[in-house]
Amino acid sequence: MMRAPRFWFRPPRAPGLAARLLAPLGAAYAAATRARLARGQGWRAPVPVICLGNLTAGGAGKTPAAIHALERLAEMGVRAHVVTRGHGGTARGPHLVDLARDDAALTGDEALLLAAFAPVWVARDRAAGARAAVAAGAEALVLDDGFQNPALVKDLSILAVDAETGLGNGRPIPAGPLRERPAEGMARADAVLLIGPPEARAAAPARWPVLRARPILNAELRARPIGIDWRGRRVVAFAGIGRPEKFFDTLRALGAELVGAHAFPDHAPYAPRILRRLQAEAAQADAQLVTTEKDAVRLPPAFRGMAMPLPVALVPEDQAAFDALLRRALARPAQG
């Protein structure tokens, strides 16, 4: 697995030589996405389908957004199930995630995180996963990703956007981070969920004007309380997520002293030799080893508990507006 190249996040007006050379491949990627979406509307589930997706490859915050949607739906008395591809796992599904038996190698890490909040179906064929969920009693379906997948008709599509990196250089993969042309994605979206610190959220629409094509909801990721005072605590942190720097910044904001910070590719598996090296570094520095929840579920059984996971939660600036979107989706007439 590779980290996102730096040129992906250069200014759109100065993308650099690599992006220009890769532009034909990017155009082909965008055309393939367009052709896939043009194949048809997909299956119309008899229950509302709510999609938390993004326009970029990884790191936007869609999984915390999906968890927040699940929590809000539960508050509304709606029994929601999740349908996800299970990126990084081998299960083809439909497979109902079992936290007591399954591991990230089977289901992917995000599925395990989501399963703490609602039943989760891993399915390469999302329509098949949706049918299984409905048969099991789901009153609503939440898609973690799948915005570019036409297998299901969506009643609500929210695009998670990292306020700091936004749409990068504005070019499709591999010339940039985009899964499709922004204007085409915005045409299918109901709202943009802009996630990041206030100053970044304020600047993002001017840097990427296409974001203004849909209503913007502002939000940030905050550490969930776990009863630990991080102020002055020495930590060695590691993360294999879309943007590990966000995790390190969260720890610093809590007052932790980072004596080591190690970034790995998104969804990266951890070899025992790497984990032993991290353990030794933390012991030598008399520091706590800390990682993300997403990384913690990928640790091999022999290393479970070696690092303290720091959970994060999505906090919308306007919770009422977020809830209104969900209620609007729930109110749409079901068709079977």
From TrEMBL:
Binding residues for ATP: T56, A57, G58, G59, A60, G61, K62, T63
Signal peptide: 1-30
EC number, as in UniProt: 2.7.1.130
InterPro entries assigned to the protein according to its UniProt record, in alphabetical order: LpxK, P-loop_NTPase
Pfam families: LpxK
Gene that this sequence comes from: lpxK
Swiss-Prot/TrEMBL keywords: ATP-binding, Kinase, Lipid A biosynthesis, Lipid biosynthesis, Lipid metabolism, Nucleotide-binding, Signal, Transferase
Organism: Oceanicella actignis
GO molecular function, a single term: lipid-A 4'-kinase activity
Lineage: Bacteria, Pseudomonadati, Pseudomonadota, Alphaproteobacteria, Rhodobacterales
Top-level division of the source organism's lineage: Bacteria
Keyword Nucleotide-binding attached: yes
Protein name: Tetraacyldisaccharide 4'-kinase
